[in-house]
Write a structure and sequence with these properties.
There is one protein chain. This protein is flat. The chain starts with 13 loop residues before the first helix and ends with a helix. The chain contains ten helices and no strands. It is mainly alpha-helical.
């Protein structure tokens, strides 16, 4: 029996789908930027005594918690009883969970990149009379950026896809809107195919950029 394909039904949901797409992009962009910024001081705490004895276990605990569980924890947290404030809106619960996940994983990547800077490069800079700040800016920072950039882009792509988990607490991102549209129109298969197409169109450009960076001479060059 032939299936009666019908994607035209989603024309009626065009504005809702565009709104959901915008929320997905906002979740991805904000969590990636804020999480990366938070990861920078955290990465130094992971390396510096005595802070690392607290920072490392806390970081490992958050890395071990699945994102879905983290979303539910922020969603059901008793804000009223503990802080005397209203519960966080669903959007901010998802944003916090995505940001925390980005921060703890990126911090460990940056820590590893700092530890992986060549000692020979640092010694060569010191022999030329570079100050510590100059060593950081001219020697260590370019090397660290070259090491973490492909992985960071991969994490940004991961954040884009993981933002779909916000749908479990009714955040009206693209997956939630498409699922609702599919249920209302009785076209669930077309709705999921539409979601697949949207995510492919969003992710492929970033994947292409990541692949180009991995093969670039600048990225392969070491200080």
């Amino acid at each position: 029996m032939n299936y009666d394909w019908n994607f035209s039904i989603f024309e009626a949901y065009k504005s809702a789908l565009l709104s959901g797409l915008w929320i997905t992009l906002k979740l991805t962009i904000l969590s990636s930027i804020i999480g990366t910024l938070l990861s920078i001081p955290l990465s130094f705490l992971l390396r510096k005594k005595p802070f690392k004895y607290i920072a490392i276990p806390v970081n490992d605990i958050f890395r071990a918690i699945p994102l879905l569980v983290l979303i539910y924890l922020f969603y059901y947290f008793p804000y009223q009883q503990i802080f005397g404030t209203k519960p966080l809106p669903e959007y901010y619960c998802a944003l916090l969970a995505l940001t925390f996940t980005q921060a703890v994983f990126t911090a460990d990547i940056i820590r590893g990149a700092i530890d992986g800077v060549s000692n020979n490069s640092i010694l060569a800079a010191q022999s030329l009379g570079f100050k510590q700040s100059q060593i950081w800016y001219y020697v260590m920072l370019p090397d660290i950026v070259r090491q973490i950039l492909p992985t960071l882009i991969a994490f940004f792509i991961g954040n884009l896809k993981l933002s779909s988990l916000a749908s479990v607490i009714a955040v009206p991102e693209i997956l939630y809107v498409a699922k609702s549209a599919g249920s209302q129109s009785f076209r669930s298969l077309e709705a999921w195919i539409l979601v697949c197409i949207i995510y492919v169109l969003l992710v492929l450009p970033f994947s292409y950029v990541a692949r180009k960076l991995e093969n670039s001479k600048w990225l392969k060059r070491r200080s």
